[in-house]
């Protein structure tokens, strides 16, 4: 029996590594388990969405269209226009519903990577480092290789693209960028986008802008979006740009698997062709509930306010013992383990779990060693997705743990 040889290149997911790290550990029974490890929204799903889903269960009797309903595409286009203050993208040619941004992030690479077009070795998929592991897997299974651009704390965790040599850029066919970032929460500004668009024009690669955290932010001004940046820079056709977003974090519906891609009409056309064969059409029932979600902002503001209050409460508590600051956006704290603790990120996570039954994710599990360093090393990611009381309890245990070793 033979298998796709690229499967052997896939690394275990971070949570598999965490499971192995904890395999022989028995957490302290005096403390109830609290997990800050997985970025899965825990706030309640809004009733208007569940009501819409139940009211449209009749859609289960119909085959869905890969392109999605006109109503859904128009709802997404309208939301983009309202959210970013730009003309509504064409609902037919520039919008495509997808089953969550994760599925589309992976499938997009299958559409745009062309190994035969690379004259010098395998094509490259450029990824931020640390990164969402789907980017790496998508690269390998499309017949390409990932190239990691390390996050620079001095640049608000943006990669230094100027340091990448011309010989690398010539092989890049796809660039993934996450803004707001996972795990750093950093947001790209207009200058950052201008740099990326200029590189895309020069080297002819596609930009996949992962914006699934765009609606969780802590400042008065909402994060700049890639479509918004393109318009501001005169790129009204969104050439070589695909934006990906999702309802999962915005509306607390990760189980619905509902999102969209938007941007370059030719890319959307080719992606629709791929997805028609891929069999990844969204259920009509989910489409109907998604329309309701995209058309309502009240529940989104309530959700955001909850995160704002939570981060305002938790961040100062953790700053007593960790090197951590409020991010631009998203629902993670990306903390550096202080040198005085004299333990690695993996040791920190393991001991914290054993002694206080709190789970955090080692930062090194979210990155790869590249250019001589692992930029996630000696950092931990904490997902503040649970209710405020539970997150505060976890923070207080972390403080106790750190003080024990200092």
TrEMBL record:
<dbReference type="InterPro" id="IPR004839">
    <property type="entry name" value="Aminotransferase_I/II_large"/>
</dbReference>
<dbReference type="Pfam" id="PF00155">
    <property type="entry name" value="Aminotran_1_2"/>
</dbReference>
<dbReference type="GO" id="GO:0009016">
    <property type="term" value="F:succinyldiaminopimelate transaminase activity"/>
</dbReference>
<feature type="domain" description="Aminotransferase class I/classII large">
    <location>
        <begin position="34"/>
        <end position="398"/>
    </location>
</feature>
<keyword id="KW-0808">Transferase</keyword>
<protein>
    <submittedName>
        <fullName>Succinyldiaminopimelate transaminase</fullName>
        <ecNumber>2.6.1.17</ecNumber>
    </submittedName>
</protein>
<keyword id="KW-0032">Aminotransferase</keyword>
<dbReference type="InterPro" id="IPR050881">
    <property type="entry name" value="LL-DAP_aminotransferase"/>
</dbReference>
<dbReference type="InterPro" id="IPR015424">
    <property type="entry name" value="PyrdxlP-dep_Trfase"/>
</dbReference>
<dbReference type="InterPro" id="IPR015421">
    <property type="entry name" value="PyrdxlP-dep_Trfase_major"/>
</dbReference>
<dbReference type="InterPro" id="IPR019878">
    <property type="entry name" value="DapC_beta/gammaproteobac"/>
</dbReference>
<dbReference type="InterPro" id="IPR015422">
    <property type="entry name" value="PyrdxlP-dep_Trfase_small"/>
</dbReference>
